[in-house]
């Protein structure tokens, strides 16, 4: 599931984000400060280094989602998986096209160029972070050298495009404004069967998501009995008319799972909020109705 989530989220990022020019020669020019901030943010975002990316998000957005929730919802890379993602992120290029003031700050339009993460899946073991982190030092060195070789020879496939971002100034620093307040509040709850065969609760009871956002939530499922329990869920979204706009990318509980006596397990589900979510949508309620099956 994690591998599929990583590929889905990388694909989402590659399609939804544009390309960035790493302007390290313009540090002294205040006009380029918003571009530099945006570049750093996108570089960390691409590398799935979400704790670092969070530092560049506006304070107004951060009031709606703390750092731990933000990171947990996105499943960051660690170890060598993070190292190689950072290597690719360092190849991102960003070029500013225009900047104009809007109600919140400056709307910055940039042309971006970034490595196609899907083109290196074979080299990077399908972006399976467990396999990557289990590689020997020699294998890791060879992978990084291959990426350097492809980049030098301009054989690394790149994706190009344009995108708009809103940048706001907080004191002397620029931050990325994501407008989480304008997104929908997605609430999660569990409906349990009669009796005490299982207990379950979401790790995140509610989150805020915008159109195009990909996020992961977990359900803790425990078996307090002395017998093994087989359970699965029925997935309900309310209001029903909004169900088509919340795509369930992956869910470990749609198929029956076994929980041993006295055991507690964590099952993750990944969602994508579709880009055509109707304007004005404020709340989406998701209920996991647990069913206990006979062994």
Protein architecture, described:
This protein is of the alpha+beta class and 295 residues long. It folds into 2 domains: 2-179, no CATH class; 183-293, Ctag/Cox11 (Pfam 04442) (Sandwich), CATH 2.60.370. It contains 8 helices and 13 strands. The protein has a 5-stranded mixed sheet with strand order 7-5-13-9-11, with no helix packed on it. Strands 1-2-3-4 form a 4-stranded antiparallel sheet. The longest helix is centred in the middle third of the chain and has 16 residues, at 137-152. The two termini are 25 Å apart.
Average pLDDT metric: 88
* Helix and strand element order: HHHHHHEEHHEEEEEEEEEEE
Structural class: alpha+beta
DSSP helix count? 8
Instruction: From the alpha carbons, calculate the radius of gyration and give it in angstroms.
Output: 21 Å
Supply the number of structural domains. Answer: 2
Number of strands: 13
Unreliable segments (pLDDT under 50, ≥5 consecutive)? Answer: 1-7, 14-29
| End-to-end gap | 25 Å
Name the overall outline.
globular
Looking across the biggest beta sheet, what order are the strands in?
7-5-13-9-11
Measured as a percent range, the helix fraction is 25-40%
For the sheet with most strands, the description reads: 5 strands, mixed
Write a short abstract of this structure.
The protein is an alpha+beta fold and 295 residues long. It is built from eight helices and 13 strands.
SSE layout and pairings?
Elements: H1 2-16, H2 33-46, H3 50-54, H4 59-62, H5 67-72, H6 79-89, E1 93-101, E2 106-115, H7 129-133, H8 137-152, E3 158-170, E4 173-177, E5 184-191, E6 199-202, E7 206-209, E8 214-222, E9 229-238, E10 246-251, E11 257-259, E12 264-273, E13 283-293
Parallel strand pairs: 5-13
Antiparallel strand pairs: 1-2, 2-3, 3-4, 5-7, 6-8, 8-12, 9-11, 9-13, 10-12
Helix pairs in contact: 2-6, 6-8
């Amino acid at each position: 599931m994690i591998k599929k989530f990583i590929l889905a989220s990388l694909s989402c990022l590659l399609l939804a984000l544009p390309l960035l020019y790493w302007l390290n020669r313009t540090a002294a020019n205040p006009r380029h400060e918003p571009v530099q901030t945006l570049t750093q943010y996108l570089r960390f975002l691409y590398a799935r280094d979400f704790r670092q990316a969070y530092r560049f998000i506006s304070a107004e957005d951060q009031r709606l989602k703390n750092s731990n929730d933000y990171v947990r919802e996105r499943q960051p890379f660690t170890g060598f998986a993070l190292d190689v993602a950072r290597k690719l992120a360092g190849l991102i290029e960003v070029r500013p096209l225009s900047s104009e003031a809007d109600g919140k700050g400056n709307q910055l339009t940039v042309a971006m160029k970034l490595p196609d993460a899907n083109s290196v899946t074979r080299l990077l073991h399908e972006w399976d972070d467990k396999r990557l982190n289990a590689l020997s030092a020699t294998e890791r060195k060879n992978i990084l050298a291959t990426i350097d070789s492809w980049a030098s020879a301009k054989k690394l496939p790149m994706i190009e495009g344009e995108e708009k971002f809103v940048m706001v100034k907080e004191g002397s620093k620029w931050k990325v404004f994501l407008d989480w307040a304008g997104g929908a509040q997605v609430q999660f709850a569990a409906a349990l069967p009669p009796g005490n065969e299982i207990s379950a609760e979401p790790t995140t009871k509610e989150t805020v998501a915008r159109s195009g956002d990909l996020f992961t939530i977990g359900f803790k499922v425990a078996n307090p009995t002395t017998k093994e329990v087989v359970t699965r869920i029925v997935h309900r979204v309310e209001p029903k008319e909004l169900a088509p706009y919340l795509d369930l990318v992956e869910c470990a509980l749609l198929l029956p799972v076994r929980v041993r006596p006295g055991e507690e397990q964590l099952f993750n589900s990944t969602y994508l909020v579709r880009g055509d979510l109707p304007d004005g949508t404020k709340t989406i309620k998701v209920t996991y109705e647990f069913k206990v099956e006979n062994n």
